[in-house]
Amino acid sequence: MNHPNANRQRRQFGRRDIDRNASATLAGGVSVACVIRNVSEGGALIVFPGNLVPDGPFRLTVEETRDTLVCEVRHQGPDGCGVRFLNGAEGLRLINH
């Protein structure tokens, strides 16, 4: 059952445009540059070079803050990859910086 305050907070922190440079550490330790286009409490839209789509969970490190978030791809489209944060409401850290 959802808690009413959690729903209010989720709406309060809707998707926000942030355009932040980041790097993604993929399986095998390969690191690639990427851009976080927007973020919400539970996920983000990320643009990878060459339309790369990570296979499995990966670590996303934001350049300016060095915050690291664990993510998985939920969908992909022409604007990038929609990811979900595996550690809950991690997007709040990006929204509040």
Task: Kindly describe this structure.
With 97 residues, the chain is mainly beta. 14% of the residues lie in helices and 46% in strands. The protein has a 6-stranded antiparallel beta barrel with strand order 1-2-3-6-5-4. The longest helix has 9 residues, at 4-12.
Outline of the structure:
The protein has 97 residues and is mostly beta strands.
Helical fraction equals: 10-25%
How would a textbook summarize the main sheet?
Answer: 6 strands, antiparallel, barrel
Average pLDDT, all residues:
84
Low-confidence stretches are 1-11
Distance between the termini: 31 Å
Gyration radius, rounded: 13 Å
By secondary-structure content and strand pairing, the structural class works out as: mainly beta
- The number of E-state strands comes to 6
- What's the arrangement of strands in the largest beta sheet? 1-2-3-6-5-4
What percentage of amino acids are in beta strands? over 45%
Number of helices: 2
Shape: globular
Helix/strand order: HEEEEEEH
Features:
97 residues; mainly beta; globular; 6-stranded antiparallel beta barrel; single chain
Question: What does the secondary structure layout of this molecule look like, with pairings?
Answer:
Layout lengths: L3 H9 L3 E10 L5 E9 L3 E5 L10 E5 L5 E10 L2 E6 L5 H5 L2
Antiparallel strand pairs: 1-2, 1-4, 2-3, 3-6, 4-5, 5-6
